[in-house]
Amino acid sequence: MKIVIDSNIVFSAILNSQGKIAQLIINGSNYFSFFSINLLKKEILNHKHKLLSISGLTETQFESSFSHITSRIKFVDEILISDQDLERATKLTRDIDENDILFVALTNHLSSKLWTGDKKESMGLKKKKYFRIISTNELYDLFIEKELQKRKP
Fold this sequence. Notes:
Number of strands: 5
CATH architecture: 3-Layer(aba) Sandwich
Pfam families: PIN_2
CATH class: Alpha Beta
Number of domains: 1
Mean pLDDT: 92
CATH superfamily: 5'-nuclease
CATH topology: Rossmann fold
Number of helices: 9
Domain PIN: 4-129
Organism: Marinilabilia salmonicolor
InterPro entries: PIN-like_dom_sf, PIN_dom
Protein name: Putative nucleic acid-binding protein
Strand order of the largest sheet: 3-2-1-4-5
Order of helices and strands: EHHEHHHEHHEHEH
Radius of gyration: 16 Å
C-alpha cells in the first residue's frame, strides 16, 4: 500500500522517535511504501531551530532522528506531479489549508492514501467526499494485522 506522509506526521516522528508515529514509519516500511514531496525535507530543515527548542533534542539527536525517519520515505520531485492532479488538489484544499496542496496532489498522482494528523484537513477533505485519507490509528491497525499474519504458521 502506498502512503503519502504530510508535514505534521514527519515532524511528530522526528520529535519523538520512540513514539507510535515514528515506529509506524520505521517498522511499517516493511509493509507500506511511504512517500512525500521533496519540499518537506527543506521545510523540516527550515524549522530545525524551532524543533530543537521544542523537543530538547541535541543537534546530533535531531540529525540522527531526521536521517532515520527520512530514510524510510521516498521523496518525489514536485515537478513530476501532473497539472491535473495539482488543479484537483487546489480545489480540494482551497478553503481548508492551501499548504497541503502538494501532499493531496501527490496522493492523487500515486493513487495512494494520505496520512495526516491534521483533523481539520481530514474532516474538510472527507466533507468534500475525498476519502484517500488514513489516520494514525487506521494505519496502526493495518500494521498490527500484517504483523499478526506474518507470525501465523
